[in-house]
Write a structure and sequence with these properties.
With 352 residues, the chain is an alpha+beta fold. It has a single domain, classed as DD-peptidase/beta-lactamase superfamily (Beta-lactamase). It has helices spanning 2-37, 81-94, 124-128, 139-145, 156-164, 179-193, 197-206, 244-247, 253-264, 269-277, 336-351, and strands spanning 43-49, 52-58, 75-76, 227-228, 234-235, 250-251, 282-284, 287-289, 294-297, 302-309, 314-320, 325-331. Strands 2-1-12-11-10-9-8-7 form an 8-stranded antiparallel sheet, with helices on both faces. The chain has a two-stranded antiparallel ribbon with strand order 3-6. A two-stranded antiparallel ribbon has the order 4-5. The longest helix is centred in the N-terminal third of the chain and has 36 residues, at 2-37. One of its GO terms (molecular function) is hydrolase activity. Residues 30-339 form the Beta-lactamase-related domain. This is CubicO group peptidase, beta-lactamase class C family.
């Protein structure tokens, strides 16, 4: 009997190893094929399956360098920052700082004076699920003013003027992607904790998880990739300012897989908070949203995902809690179609 049990254990280990190899080989093949067809677009991918990690990367840090992109290379994760911010919101809920269905009125900084039509109307969950109805920053105009650093013209006064001059909510309860909503969430966190957003995200996510290459204000490091706009021109990393909670964190595939490990572990503080963010707060036809995450379901799977596009980079993060896998894809060019096509192909051929 003992011999039989040992044989079965060995067989199970071999099967698990082969299954893992099958996953990683297929993912690497898809990424390699994409790079060979698009050699000007560098890419870094991290994958986790039942706590086993896999990384692959192709391309150079920049056109002048011979240094290869790897799992530690720094990218702009752009709006994937919103997943981090929504997790901080959920952590605050766990700590009884507020409830997700509280109105924002008493949690906003004193600079904001809501019009009577807006009072006791907008919930914290409305901001986090993009249905607040508030006006947003006009990125088109900002890009015209400064295509390299468009958000440099966004200040606290910009935000205060937008909010204080708003007299009616547009399509409240309907989905409209909002940068200002997540900026306000960051400021709500600052008020309830009495600390800056930078301090909060370090204290509650970056430091506990030892995400040493997840950076905020200071990102002038040797392993930083050079971003490129959709036409292939070099693009600067966006500098830290008041809109940081909506999209200004920089990170790499290794650190984002570390974050996904914590998300998938429901015993961690981050994992407990992530479960709150995964509840459905918005559902209309084929769109479902949690707090900061899109929810996609089919007959067998529920996946949670968030994409990000800076001026010069594109990214996407996706995970399946039930099947215990997660993936991060980072591109050094703004190319939302490519990053989505890659995820779709990996999902359809490997993960589904």
């Amino acid at each position: 009997m003992k011999t039989s049990l040992n044989f079965l254990t060995a067989l199970l280990l071999i099967s698990t190893f082969s299954f893992g190899q099958n996953f990683t080989n297929k993912i690497d093949s898809i990424i390699k094929d994409n790079y060979q067809k698009n050699p000007n677009v560098g890419i870094s991918v991290g994958f986790i399956n039942n706590n086993e990690e896999f990384h692959t990367a192709y391309g150079k840090l920049n056109a002048e360098s011979q240094a290869e992109i790897n799992k530690n290379s720094l990218f702009e994760i752009a709006s994937i920052t919103k997943i981090l911010t929504s997790n901080l919101i959920a952590q605050a809920v766990v700590e009884n700082k507020f409830k997700v269905d509280d109105y924002i009125d008493n949690y906003l900084p004193k600079e904001y004076i809501l019009h009577s039509n807006l009072k006791n109307k907008i919930k914290i969950s409305d901001l986090a699920s993009h249905q607040s109805g508030l006006p947003d920053i006009d990125f088109g105009k900002l890009i015209e003013l400064n295509p390299q650093q468009p958000i440099s013209n966004v200040t606290q006064k910009t935000l205060t003027d937008i909010i204080n001059n708003c007299t009616e909510l547009k399509d409240y309860g309907q989905y409209r992607y909002s940068t200002i909503g997540y900026t306000l969430l960051g400021q709500i966190l600052e008020k309830v904790y009495g600390k800056s957003y930078d301090e909060i995200i370090r204290e509650k996510i970056i430091t506990p998880l030892k995400m040493k290459n997840t950076l905020t204000k200071d990102f002038n490091v040797k392993n930083r990739t050079v971003g490129h706009n959709s036409e292939g021109g070099a693009q600067e990393f966006l500098t830290w300012n008041v809109t940081a909670p909506a999209g200004l964190v920089k990170s790499n595939a290794f650190d984002m897989i570390t974050y996904l490990k914590a998300v998938l572990n429901k015993e961690t503080q981050i994992g407990k908070a992530a479960i709150i963010t995964e509840k459905k707060f918005y559902k209309v036809e084929n769109r479902e949203l949690g707090l900061g995450v899109n929810i996609v379901t089919d007959d067998k799977n529920t996946i949670y995902l968030k994409s990000g596009d800076s001026m010069g980079q594109s990214s996407i993060i996706c995970y399946n809690r039930t099947k215990n896998w997660g993936i991060i894809i980072l591109l050094n060019q703004r190319n939302s179609k490519m990053r989505q096509d890659l995820l779709n192909k990996i999902y359809d051929t490997v993960l589904k």
